[in-house]
Recover the amino acids of this structure.
C-alpha cells in the first residue's frame, strides 16, 4: 500500500492524532456522536430472604427419551441442597451426575433428593421399543455387547470447570472408579471424548475439548492404564449433552466422556 | 457456476477523467477506511462505543443508476431485466462508496443508450449526480447481452468513463453475473483501483440440511449451495487464495480431521488423516502452505504443512490450547492465532517459524482473528469485559496492529463471531445470533449497514474468498 499524503482531518479533534497514522491516507470522517453513550449498570439482584433451610432442588433428564432395545440413553441429574440422592432403580448416586443406561424395557427413573429442607422428587421416562426381529447374533458378538453394556454403565464422566482442562478434586472419586474398572477389564479399548458448554467460540471449544480429553487420558495413564488403549477426540460444543442455557446444563456439558471401542 | 461466453469487448476508458478521479481515489483508499476510525478512537478506548460516520464530512460520490431496459423482445426479458436491475442496485448501494441518488429524483427520460442521455438533467438539481451508470440488456438466441456505460455527469466534454458489452447465459444466474461484472467494472474505476467484490463468494457451515455441512454462496447471499454431504459435523471452511479448493474440518471419519474439497472437480480430494483433533486450516497467501491446529501431541498446537498435508512442522508448544491460525495476507510472514496458555483465550502473533511471539489482546475472551487484506488491521471476536456482572456480549472488534488501538464494530449484544474481511477490505462478514439463531451477516468495515445473508438453519463461520 502506497502511503498517501495526509490531508487535513475534518474533525476538530482529529489533528492531534494524525501523526499516529502516517500510513493511513485519510478519507473518512468520523463523528463522536453518542460517544458518551454509557451502558447502564445492571442492578444487582438482592439476596434471597433467609427462611430456614430451602427444600432441595432436583432435575432428572434422559436423552434421548426413546430408544430401541439394545441402544443406550444418557440419564443426567443435578440436585442442590441435598445430602443424599437416590434414583430408582439405580440406587444411591452422587448428588449430580450422569450415567448411561440401556434397559431392555421402558423404564421410569425416579429420583429422590433428601436434604435439611426436606425431600424433592423428579422422574424421567425412557421408552424402549423392541428391536426389529433379527437373526440371533453369534456368541462372540453377544459377549462383546455385554462387555460394552458393562462399560457404558460403569464408567463415569469426568466434569470440568469453565474454560479449564484440569481434572478437579471433586472428580477424583469418579476417576478412581473409572481406573478400577479399566484395570479390571484390561482388554477394553476406548475413546475419551472432550466436550464443552455452549459459551465461547466453536473453534476454541474444539481445542479446549481436546485438552480435556487429553487431561483424562493422562490421568488414566499415570494410574497405569496403557496409553494405547486410549484414543481421544473432541466434540467441543458441537454435540451438547444438555441443551439449555443454565449453569447446571453447562456443567453437564463440560466433561470427558468415555466411549467403548469395538 | 456460470459459464462466461464472452467476457468483454469494446472497453473504453476515458483518460481525460483520470485526474478528476485521482482525488476521489485518495479519499476512498481502503486503508483509510478504517485506519481513520482507529486514529480517532484513541481517546475513547475506555468508552463503550463510538459512532463512526465513515464518509461524513467527505462527500460520497452521488451515483445515479437508472434501471436498464430490455433491448430485445424476448419474453424471458421480464424476469431477467428485473433480476439484473435488483442485483446491480444492490451491488452499488452496498459497496460503501456511493450515495445512491434516489430514483424519485430521476428525470422522466431514462437513457438506455448514450444517445438518449441528457447529461445536464442528471448533473443539475435535484439529481446532482456525479456519475451515472446506465444501459440495456436483452436475451436472444445466443444468450443474454448487456450494454453498460458509466458517464461522468460533470464532464460534458468527455463524459464516458466506461462502455462495455457483457455476455452470459440467459438465466437468472447469468443476469446476476452480468450485473456483478458491470458493478465490479464501476467499482474498480471509482474505488481507488481496488477491484470490486461483486463476484466474490462466501463459504460457511450450515445445519439447514439436518447436520452441519459446508456451503457456499455469492457475496450478496444469492446462489446458496451445499458442497459436502457427510451427514456428520463439518465446519470451518477456508477457501484457497486461487479460489479452487476449500479446506475444512469434519468428524465424518471419527475425530475432527482436515479435509479438502475441489471446486474445480466438484468433489473431495485426498488429504492425509492424522490422529487427534485437527482444526482450523488457514491458507498462506501464496497458496503453498496450510497452518492448522492439531492435538496429535496431546495439547492443541499450531502446525504448518504443505497443502498436500506433507512436511508437517510444529510451531507452538505451550500448555493450553492453540487454535485458529491466520496468515498475514500481505506478507505471508506472520501468523495470528488464539491461545489459552494463560487462561481465557487471547490473540497472539508469531512469525511463520514460530519465533517472535507477541500477545495482542490483554484481557477478556478474544478469539477468531481475521487479517485485513492490507495486513494492517486485525478483526476478531472479543468478550472484552469478561467476568461476573460484566455485560458479557461477544462483539467484533478491529485493531490496528502497529498501534494496538481498537474499535468495536458490533453493539447488538449476543454472540458475534468469526469475522472475515472482504477482498477489498471494505466489508466484514461475521456470524451473529442477534436474530435469535446464528446467521451469516455482512457489514461495512466501520460496523455500519449490517445485512443478514442467511435465514434457514443455523449458519456459522463465514470465510470470504480472496478475490
Amino acid at each position: 500500500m502506497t502511503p498517501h499524503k495526509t490531508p487535513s482531518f475534518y474533525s476538530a479533534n482529529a489533528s492531534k492524532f494524525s501523526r499516529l497514522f502516517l500510513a493511513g491516507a485519510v478519507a473518512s470522517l468520523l463523528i463522536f456522536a453518542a460517544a458518551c453513550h454509557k451502558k447502564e449498570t445492571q442492578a444487582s439482584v438482592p439476596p434471597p430472604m433467609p427462611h430456614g433451610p430451602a427444600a432441595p432442588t432436583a432435575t432428572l433428564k434422559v436423552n434421548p427419551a426413546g430408544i430401541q432395545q439394545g441402544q443406550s440413553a444418557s440419564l443426567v441429574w443435578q440436585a442442590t441442597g441435598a445430602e443424599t440422592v437416590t434414583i430408582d432403580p439405580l440406587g444411591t448416586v452422587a448428588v449430580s451426575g450422569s450415567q448411561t443406561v440401556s434397559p431392555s424395557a421402558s423404564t421410569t427413573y425416579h429420583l429422590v433428593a433428601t436434604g435439611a429442607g426436606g425431600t424433592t422428587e423428579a422422574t424421567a421416562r425412557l421408552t424402549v421399543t423392541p428391536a426389529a426381529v433379527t437373526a440371533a447374533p453369534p456368541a462372540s458378538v453377544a459377549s462383546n455387547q455385554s462387555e460394552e453394556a458393562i462399560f457404558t454403565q460403569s464408567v463415569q464422566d469426568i466434569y470440568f470447570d469453565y474454560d479449564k482442562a484440569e481434572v478437579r478434586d471433586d472428580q477424583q472419586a469418579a476417576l478412581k472408579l473409572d481406573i478400577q474398572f479399566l484395570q479390571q477389564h484390561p482388554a477394553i479399548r476406548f475413546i475419551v471424548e472432550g466436550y464443552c458448554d455452549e459459551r465461547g467460540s466453536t473453534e476454541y471449544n474444539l481445542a479446549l475439548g481436546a485438552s480435556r480429553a487429553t487431561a483424562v487420558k493422562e490421568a488414566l495413564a499415570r494410574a497405569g492404564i496403557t496409553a494405547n488403549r486410549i484414543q481421544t477426540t473432541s466434540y467441543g460444543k458441537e454435540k451438547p449433552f444438555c441443551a439449555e442455557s443454565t449453569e447446571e446444563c453447562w456443567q453437564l456439558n463440560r466433561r470427558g466422556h468415555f466411549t467403548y471401542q469395538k | 457456476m456460470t459459464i462466461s461466453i464472452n467476457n468483454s469487448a469494446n472497453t473504453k476508458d476515458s483518460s481525460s477523467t483520470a485526474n478528476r478521479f485521482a482525488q476521489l481515489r485518495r479519499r476512498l483508499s481502503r486503508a483509510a477506511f478504517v485506519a481513520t476510525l482507529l486514529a480517532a478512537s484513541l481517546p475513547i478506548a475506555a468508552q463503550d462505543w463510538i459512532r463512526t460516520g465513515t464518509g461524513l464530512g467527505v462527500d460520497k460520490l452521488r451515483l445515479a443508476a437508472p434501471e436498464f431496459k430490455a433491448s430485445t423482445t424476448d419474453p424471458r426479458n421480464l424476469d431477467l431485466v428485473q433480476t439484473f436491475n435488483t442485483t446491480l442496485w444492490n451491488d452499488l448501494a452496498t459497496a460503501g462508496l456511493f450515495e445512491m441518488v434516489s430514483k424519485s429524483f430521476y428525470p422522466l427520460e431514462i437513457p438506455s443508450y448514450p444517445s438518449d442521455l441528457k447529461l445536464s438533467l442528471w448533473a443539475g438539481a435535484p439529481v446532482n449526480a456525479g456519475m451515472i451508470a446506465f444501459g440495456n440488456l436483452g436475451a436472444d438466441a445466443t444468450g443474454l447481452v448487456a450494454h453498460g456505460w458509466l458517464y461522468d455527469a460533470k464532464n460534458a466534454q468527455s463524459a464516458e468513463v466506461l462502455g462495455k458489452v457483457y455476455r452470459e447465459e440467459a438465466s437468472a444466474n447469468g443476469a446476476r453475473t452480468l450485473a456483478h461484472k458491470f458493478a465490479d467494472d464501476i467499482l474498480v474505476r471509482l474505488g481507488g483501483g481496488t477491484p470490486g467484490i461483486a463476484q466474490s463468494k462466501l463459504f460457511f457451515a450450515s445445519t439447514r440440511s439436518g447436520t452441519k455441512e459446508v456451503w457456499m454462496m455469492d457475496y450478496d447471499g444469492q446462489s446458496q449451495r451445499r458442497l459436502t454431504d457427510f451427514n456428520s459435523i463439518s465446519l470451518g471452511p477456508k477457501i484457497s487464495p486461487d479460489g479452487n479448493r476449500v479446506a475444512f474440518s469434519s468428524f465424518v471419519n471419527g475425530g475432527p480431521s482436515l479435509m479438502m474439497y475441489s471446486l474445480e472437480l466438484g468433489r473431495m480430494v485426498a488429504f492425509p488423516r492424522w490422529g487427534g483433533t485437527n482444526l482450523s486450516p488457514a491458507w498462506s497467501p501464496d497458496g503453498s502452505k496450510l497452518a492448522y491446529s492439531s492435538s496429535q501431541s496431546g495439547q492443541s498446537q499450531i502446525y504448518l504443512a504443505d497443502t498436500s498435508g506433507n512436511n508437517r512442522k510444529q510451531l507452538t508448544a505451550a500448555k493450553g490450547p492453540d487454535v485458529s491460525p491466520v496468515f498475514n495476507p500481505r506478507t505471508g510472514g506472520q501468523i495470528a492465532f488464539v491461545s489459552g496458555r494463560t487462561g481465557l483465550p487471547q490473540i497472539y502473533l508469531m512469525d511463520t517459524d514460530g519465533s517472535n511471539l507477541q500477545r495482542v489482546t490483554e484481557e477478556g475472551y478474544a478469539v477468531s482473528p481475521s487479517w485485513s487484506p492490507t495486513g494492517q488491521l486485525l478483526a476478531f471476536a472479543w468478550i472484552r469485559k469478561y467476568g461476573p456482572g460484566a455485560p458479557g456480549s461477544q462483539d467484533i472488534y478491529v485493531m490496528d496492529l502497529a498501534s494496538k488501538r481498537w474499535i468495536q464494530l458490533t453493539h447488538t449484544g449476543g454472540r458475534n463471531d468469526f469475522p472475515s474481511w472482504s477482498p477489498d477490505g471494505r466489508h466484514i462478514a461475521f456470524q451473529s445470533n442477534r436474530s435469535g439463531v446464528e446467521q451469516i451477516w455482512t457489514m461495512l468495515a466501520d460496523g455500519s449497514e449490517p445485512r443478514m445473508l442467511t435465514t434457514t438453519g443455523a449458519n456459522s463461520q463465514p470465510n470470504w474468498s480472496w478475490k
